Amino acid sequence: VSQSRYAWGNNSQGQLGTNNLISYSTPVSVHTSQRFVQVSAGLDPSASKSSLGITSDGTCWAWGENGLGDLGTNDRTDYSTPVSVHTTQGFIQVSGGTQYSLGITSDGTCWAWGRNEYGYLGTNDRTPYSTPVSVNTSQRFIQVGGGYLNSLGLTSNGECWSWGNNNN
Fold first, then answer.
1. What is the Cα–Cα distance from 163 to 21, expressed in whole angstroms?
2. How far apart are the first and last CA of the chain?
3. Of 25, 37, 78, 126, which is least packed with CB atoms within 10 Å of its CB?
4. pLDDT tens across 67-76, in order?
5. Nearest to 50 by CA among 88, 83, 89, 91
6. How far apart are CA 76 and CA 61, in angstroms?
7. pLDDT tens per residue across span 103-119
8. HSE of 82 in the Cβ direction (CA atoms, 13 Å)?
9. What is the distance of C-alpha 76 from the center of its chain?
10. The pTM of the whole model exceeds 0.85
């Protein structure tokens, strides 16, 4: 069984994880030995240029643009290969938004990091965070989704929770 991980498309900030900035129109191997069980790409091609993956042990990896701490690496350095997100949390699912990311742990706790201009990290402020911080809710989620300027969380009983920009 092949253990290759593949990506393709725009790679202007290293978001394909190929250890270069060349864009590809066909699948190419992500430059890592990690075996991912779930991956997510950031949203909005004009702003978000990062990718995420989690391994079977819950370790979260990120690569690409990191100007606002989008990768959760506790710095603002762009990475063109996967690097470990700076956290002790083990994630079961991750989702990339517009210059921010979300992750949930096995107990349903939601964590967020990166840009926070409209409060879509759910931290009750608009401060950007370069490492994962707990979303300010007692809700437990089975799935999360990062959007353009808002976030969503789905509970096990089918309730959908939303936070962030509500202008439209």
1. 34
2. 47
3. 25
4. 889 999 999 9
5. 83
6. 15
7. 999 999 999 999 999 99
8. 23
9. 15
10. yes
